[in-house]
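Below: protein 1.
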Amino acid sequence: MSKDYYEILGVTKGASKDEIKKAFHKLAHKYHPDKNKGDDKKFKEVNEAYQTLSDDQKRAQYDQFGSNFQSGGFQGNQGGFGGFDPSGFAQQGFDMGDLGDIFSDFFAGGMGGGRSQPRRGRDISTEITVSFAEAVFGVERRVLIAKTSKCLTCDGVGAKPGTSMKKCSTCNGKGQIHETKRSFLGTFSSTKLCDTCGGTGEVPSTPCATCHGAGVLRREEEVSIKIPAGMNDGEMVRLSGMGEAISHGTSGDLYIKINVMPHPTFRREGHNLAMNLDIKLSEALLGGERTIETLDGKLSVKIPESVAPNEILRVREKGVPQGKNKRGDLMIKLVIKMPHKLSKRAREAVEQLRAEDL
């Protein structure tokens, strides 16, 4: 059954890549399996939709052929059934039975004799918290994650170290099993991976004592996470192949949500950093020089004479990194602090200013 990836992510068909990415981040966080109300099935469904719609080529194929575009046969009119729509038979009262499975196997390689797609491990996700400065400049973290990983004893082979492999008796060493299915449309032959050996054609003669021949087991694994400069709160980093491993298959991906701690002074405005600087009335009138603490260290800032309230001073290249050799700016908002009480001398000075119509 074709899936509506746009509906799964809650976006329109004309949604931009940014809208699709934001929708995915929100739903992935909501359905994360490790959360109290997480949903592993929904999480996989959301990830499948995102992996398709975030890729221009896959999205174009999906828009044309639906979610079955990856099955292998729907490429224009070559090798297919033209405008044939099996759903028409269901509308006329035919029992479709396993027709969907027949077409899936047929186009997945039954005609051409190609191999089925290898199995893939589960995608997983976690969260880490970083400081404001670490999010701006980037940082590398190492975290322990409990997941299904490759067995270190047998290196994922499944055999006891020093022992040999033997031919799989299920597929006779071919790694594939041929099946024939019949329907009212005719007889269809398909080829699929052998479940016993996972398509390798071999099984351990003596299984590994640690993983019992599976090649994978659940354990804690230390993962190095490189957080690039300029990350925003709530963004995600994807580590391909660092998800859960699966016997005779490829590992899934690891998604890391980045939580950024707020800073007492600075805030993000795109690639710029913004802050408020309180100055005295005398500094606003006469100018001056102040030393401030930035993410790069101490910085001397010159305040010009006669600045207006909330005037912005721009310090070039002291903001968030953009690419290799470019950074945003530091925007300093000057907030003039009015005195609560004037001394006698200060009042006389202000009176003198008023006399000069200033």
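Below: protein 2.
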Amino acid sequence: MGFRCGIVGLPNVGKSTLFNALTRTAAAQAANYPFCTIEPNTGEVAVPDERLAKLAAIAKPASVVPTRLTFVDIAGLVRGASKGEGLGNQFLANIREVDAIAHVLRCFDDPDVTHVEGVVDPVADIETIETELMLADLQSLERRIEPLRKKATGKDKEAMAQLPVMETALDLLREGKPARLAWIADSDKPAFKALNLLTSKRMLYVCNVDEASAATGNSYSEKVEAMVAEQAKDHGPPPEHATGKAGAWPKPPGVVVISAAIEAEIAQLPEAEQREYLDAMGLAEPGLDRLIRAGYDLLDLVTFFTVGPKEAHAWTVTRGTHAPQAAGAIHTDFERGFIRAQTIAYDDFVDFGGEVGARDAGRARDEGKDYVVKDGDVMLFKFNV
């Protein structure tokens, strides 16, 4: 799997421009007025990974298939979205369907581009969007909490497991904090995920800066980074029901500095000219690469590979995935009939010139159902159905 990343933000911050650049399409209309994006546009992009190219150079397969990620361009939210303002209900529903949120923030000055709030202030923009998401979550949980308490009083096991998690989220929301700040025990993560809260989504702040600031950022993006650093300290003690349980505080939101204008230019250039353009702008790589890496880190995703004469293929799974479930990412029959997985570390595959060389050197391992897939593993699944 890849992951679905929803691009959100206030109107006129560069969401659709960034989406068009990232997906190399013109599917989303970019215009200087609110709500130019009415339906969520979806685009898939190949995940750049130099390792796949090296594996293919060794194995010389007939085709090379990178893993893919999906971007969803969601129309601009405004103050009052939680109450339906600006088509808010529809857009909030779209956000529920994504794995992570890329919140695009205007970090540039341009008198020709209007700002819905009248002033450029990315931290205030974060607070506006966050408030709407928190209000929507608060309304959702307050409708559900009493029926759940009644079920828990009646010794319903599912309700008893979910109630303390819901109460933890509610306490945070009532304090004006997003649910993703909650300390959640490992054993409670399925119940927490089942709440499907907007503010529990992993958050990535995309600072859309002017072209001159693309390599270094600017005073606006620095304010965002400072806010995230401060928010990371804002942890109270774990909730009482978490005593004795394994768990951890969540990762803070990621921050990526990108110039949507530059990404739009890169998207129009032939591949051979992109490197020259990036060098001229003082950039080591396109913003897309940075955005994907930040998203992968945020969601704890890893990549494994399958390599053969027909195809070299990259696959993405969540960190901690066991071998049978990784096989299931390829085909459900592979998981259902899983026997074992021949596994070669990426470095060993490259150093020994491929599968045969790695196997002859004793670097190919047969792993069973309990094996946890590592980033870069080259795997061959044995199954029987």
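Confidence is low (pLDDT under 50) at residues 25-38.
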